[in-house]
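Subject: two folds for Thursday's group meeting

Dear M.,

Sorry for the delay on this. The cluster queue was jammed most of the week, so I only got both jobs back this morning. I'm pasting them in the order they finished. Each block is the input sequence followed by the predicted structure tokens. Could you check whether the formatting survives your parser before we put anything on slides? The first protein is the one we discussed after the seminar.
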Amino acid sequence: MVATIEVPASYSSLPFKDIIVSEVAEDTPVATKVLILAFNRPDKHNAVTENLLTELEAAYRLIDQDERVRVVVLTGTGRAFCVGGDLQTGFSGLLAHQASRESIDRYRDQGGKIALAIASCTKPTVVAINGPVANFGFTITFPATTRVAWARAKVAQPFSRLGFSLESCSAYVLPRSVTKKQHPDFRGTFDRKAVPFWPWWDADKNEVSSSKL
């Protein structure tokens, strides 16, 4: 869990474990207009845990207050962007602090809180998709201002085939992110195999040949 923290002189000094926030350039001692916010569990393909989500929300709350920052680039370290929840920890890893029935009843979808933090942030978010994307890693791109993807990036949504509802406010954001002609198929035709990231945003196709975004 992340204790309450104040806007720092440099974001690289923040005590985050599962995300990295860095300035451009990295050795800058103060916050820059562009910040790079990266999932930082490369050995797990940036699968998310409760701590990662908590840190991500905290980072966005700080950035929203910081007049020095003008734009956020959201990406992943290592070979993947984000492959969704960490299946090794399961729901217990996402609900670790939920001890009582009362607290469970008060629980809010952490992914939804992240989506709202991105959408409500006064600083635009550019998602730089550097590798494989799945589940939360995909739906969290919806509230971003724009997306840039490696040409060979693949996306998978296995939970839509397993009967799980789309999370992270995506049922609301999805129709506002793709065209009306596209989004009915977009929700229902994913199988467990990964497919190319594009052409889902035909009006917003920013594709690059290198995964080093």
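Second protein, same layout:
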Amino acid sequence: METGEALGMSLRGHTSCVNSVAISPDGTRIVSGSAARTIRVWDADTGKPLGAPLQGHTDGVSSITISLDGTCIG
């Protein structure tokens, strides 16, 4: 870890800082919540966003979880 090398890829798409990240139980999806009141779902293999940002929060998203069966984001 002292080499300074990146361990993965950058996920680009939020317009503000990311406050929380969760990985689906099967490892195929990454979900991130930002200070810009949006949630994004990403393909873990490609790093590409899946669909448009999920909007409607009245404040920044400070924490995020994925259900054990991978069907719900909370």
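Two things I noticed about the second structure. The chain has a mean pLDDT of 90. The chain has one domain: 1-74.

Cheers,
T.
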